[in-house]
Specification:
This protein is an alpha+beta fold. The chain is 35% helix and 15% strand. It has twelve helices and 16 strands.
C-alpha cells in the first residue's frame, strides 16, 4: 500500500511540481521558443488583463499562478469518477498558487504574494489539498459545495457555490439511492459522506477561463503526459465523461476507437477493463442547463443502464 501511495504522489507531482509550466510563468513566455509550447495559451490565461466592475484593467500576475489540478478526492477508493475537459479559472479563489522557486525552495501559498495572510505551503500540504478536497470544502446553508474567495486581500465570509460540484452531488445521490431525508446527519456532514464516493479529474489539468484554448493537440498531449496515468490509478467502477471534448478525447486517446463515441451518444455503456463508462452533456450545456435534474442518471438513461450503474457501485 505504501508503494501505491508513493506512486500516487509521484503522479500528482508531475502536475503540481511542473518546472516546464512554471518556467513559462516565471519568464513571462519571453524565452525563445517557449511561446510555442503547446500549453502556452492555457498558462497565459492567468496573465491576461481583465476589467473589474469599475472598468479598471487589472492583471492576475501578482496573484501567483494557480497551479495544475491533478484530481480532487480519493483516487484509490472512490466509486464514481467524473472526467471533464479542464478546470475553470476563478481569479479570487483561495487555491494553491505558485510564487517562484524550484525543488525544495519552491513556494506555494493559498493567497496572493503580498497578502497579510500569506503562509507558505509544503508540498504535502498541496497534495493533501487535492486528496481531501471534498472533505474540506465549505458548503452554503442550502448544502451547495463551494469555494472560498479572497478579495482585496481579505477572505470573504460567504463561500461561493460551485454548480459543477452541486450537480455531481445530485448524480451521486441518484446512483446511491439516498437523500438527506433518509439520514440523521446535518446537511454538511451528509454531503461530506456523499463525496467520499466521488473523485473528479480533467483531461487537461491546467486552469483556463474558457475551453476555447482546448484544441485536439492540447487535449491529446495532456491525456498522454498527465491524465492517462491518473485515470488508470483510479479504482472507480463507474465513470462519467462530461462534455463533448472529454468524450471524444477519451475515445480517441484511451480507447483508440473513434466509433465508441457513437455508442456513448446513444446513451449506452462502454466497458473498459473493470469500469462502466457513460457520457453526459457538459453541465453548462445550453440544451440541458435549465434543469439540473436533466443530468440525473434516472432521468437521462434507460432503466437497464441505470440499474447496471447502481449495481456496480460499492454502496455504504
Amino acid at each position: 500500500m505504501e508503494d501505491r501511495n508513493n506512486k500516487l504522489d509521484s503522479i500528482m507531482d508531475s502536475v503540481i511540481l511542473n518546472d516546464e509550466i512554471y518556467g513559462l510563468w516565471d519568464t513571462k513566455f519571453s524565452v525563445e521558443g517557449e511561446h510555442n509550447h503547446i500549453l502556452s495559451n492555457i498558462i497565459r490565461c492567468q496573465y491576461e488583463k481583465d476589467t473589474d466592475n469599475t472598468g479598471t484593467e487589472k492583471s492576475y500576475e501578482i496573484s501567483g499562478y494557480q497551479i495544475g489540478e491533478p484530481w480532487n478526492g480519493d483516487l484509490l477508493n472512490a466509486d464514481i469518477l467524473f472526467l471533464s475537459s479542464n478546470p475553470g479559472f476563478t481569479s479570487e479563489e483561495i487555491f494553491p498558487r505558485y510564487h517562484g522557486g524550484k525543488g525544495e525552495n519552491i513556494k506555494f501559498s493559498f493567497y496572493e504574494k503580498n497578502s497579510s495572510k500569506n503562509e507558505w505551503l509544503s508540498i504535502n500540504d498541496v497534495r493533501d489539498f487535492f486528496k481531501n478536497r471534498f472533505n474540506n470544502i465549505p458548503y452554503t446553508k442550502s448544502g451547495v459545495p463551494s469555494i472560498y474567495i479572497i478579495k482585496d486581500g481579505k477572505e470573504q465570509k460567504n463561500a461561493r457555490g460551485v454548480k459543477f460540484w452541486k450537480i455531481i452531488a445530485k448524480i451521486t445521490e441518484d446512483l446511491l439511492g439516498c437523500s438527506l431525508e433518509d439520514k440523521t446527519q446535518d446537511i454538511e456532514s451528509y454531503k461530506r459522506e456523499l463525496f467520499k464516493h466521488v473523485v473528479s479529474m480533467e483531461i487537461v489539468p491546467f486552469k483556463s477561463k474558457s475551453d476555447n484554448v482546448l484544441r485536439n493537440a492540447v487535449l491529446n498531449y495532456c491525456w498522454e503526459k498527465y491524465s492517462r496515468e491518473i485515470f488508470r490509478m483510479s479504482n472507480a467502477q463507474v465513470v462519467f465523461l462530461i462534455g463533448k471534448k472529454a468524450q471524444e478525447t477519451f475515445c480517441r486517446c484511451e480507447l483508440n476507437d473513434n466509433e465508441a463515441i457513437s455508442r456513448l451518444r446513444e446513451r449506452k455503456i462502454l466497458y473498459y477493463e473493470d469500469k462502466r463508462i457513460v457520457a453526459l452533456p457538459h453541465f453548462s450545456s445550453r440544451r440541458e442547463h435549465r434543469r439540473e435534474n436533466n443530468f440525473l442518471p434516472s432521468e437521462y438513461f434507460e432503466n437497464e443502464v441505470v440499474s447496471e450503474l447502481k449495481s456496480a457501485i460499492n454502496k455504504p
